[in-house]
Amino acid sequence: MSYIILVVDDSPSMRKVVMKIIEMSGFPVNQFHEAGNGLEGLECCREQPVDLIVTDLNMPGMDGLTFIEQLHQDPDLRQIPVIIVSTEGRAEIVDEAKDLGVVEFINKPFQAETIAKTMYRMLGVENDVRNDGTSETPDF
Amino acid sequence: MTSETMELLKRLTFDIMQEMCFLFRSDTPDSPEVSGENTLVRVDCGKTYQIYLRFDSRLAETIAQNLLGAEAEAVDDTLRRSALTEIANMVGGNFINQMALDISTKVSIPRIVEKDWNDQEFDTPARISTEWLYIDKRPLQLAIVEQAG
């Protein structure tokens, strides 16, 4: 099975970094979608299927927490797992995200393997997705 | 503003360069300067702090290529600028975390600016501290402005 992943960040370079890391990890990606803020992310989710969302918090237009809140209010979208990748580390914000059901929070800066391992774990994907016979998470 | 504030800023910057761009600190020469083209990025941490990062042009190129894992020809001006503002975003966001600033304090959207701290007019008293960092043997000038009130 391969997955459709939505990457939401107002920084084009950070979107590319996240997508590149996911690709290099060997994670089975069917397709990437990109959005520059929560509003665009919401539109994307409503128009096409998405299996996983990786989102920043601090974005113009619609920030990450509002985006997640909106997802939760939509019965068709609330089951999509969400990973937050953000510089935000204050307990109040992390708690607010957890109250919205977000269970994975990655702080920037991050190591490449952190995002990949988190995705494997969240989606329950076997981390031996390469054909090299190894059973370990790919070494970055 | 204490010298510890600038030391924190320096440490954050070095950590981010290392972790995200695989670039390491090098010794600072006696007379550091950014000559020729450079890019100045500003990020605000609430109303109290303004942080500036002035990137030497070659350092900026290297940062963008390393961050994106791309060759030079694949990195256009838009991506280069985006990479630098993203670095500033990480510096600003982590500065807020490390300083344990009030929850209402938000990091601004970083932007590339022409005017630096010397060209600003401050409506409240401001203390300014600047430092030079050398990363991958290229200069990066850091400045932090702390405004009262």
What does this structure look like?
The complex is a heterodimer of chains A (140) and B (149). Chain A is α/β, with parallel strands linked by helices and 140 residues long. Chain A is built from 5 helices and 5 strands. A 5-stranded parallel sheet of chain A has the order 2-1-3-4-5. In chain A, helix 3 links the parallel strand 3 and strand 4. By secondary structure, chain B is of the alpha+beta class. The longest helix of chain B has 23 residues. The radius of gyration of chain B is 15 Å and the shape is globular. The interface between A and B is medium-sized, with 22 and 26 residues.
Based on CA atoms alone, the radius of gyration of chain B comes out at 15 Å
Q: Fraction of residues of chain A in helices?
A: 25-40%
Report low-confidence residues of chain A grouped into runs of 5 or more.
Answer: 128-140
The largest sheet of chain B is: 5 strands, antiparallel
Return the structural class of chain B.
Answer: alpha+beta
The top level CATH class name of chain A: Alpha Beta
For the residues shown, what is the average pLDDT of chain A? 86
Distance between the termini of chain B: 13 Å
Strand content of chain A: 15-25%
Shape of chain A: globular
Largest interface: A-B, 22 and 26 residues
The residue ranges of chain B in which pLDDT falls below 50 over 5 or more consecutive positions are: none
CATH superfamily of chain A: Response regulator
How do the strands of the widest beta sheet of chain B line up side by side? 3-1-2-5-4
Please provide the ordered H/E string of secondary-structure elements of chain A. EHEHEHEHEH
Overall mean confidence score, pLDDT of chain B? 90
Oligomer: heterodimer
Secondary structure topology:
The complex is a heterodimer of chains A (about 140) and B (about 150).
Chain A lengths: L2 E6 L3 H13 L4 E7 L2 H10 L4 E4 L8 H10 L8 E5 L4 H9 L4 E4 L4 H12 L17
Parallel strand pairs in A: 1-2, 1-3, 3-4, 4-5
Chain B lengths: L2 H19 L16 E8 L3 E8 H12 L8 H23 L11 E3 L12 E10 L2 E10 L2
Helix pairs in contact in B: 1-3, 2-3
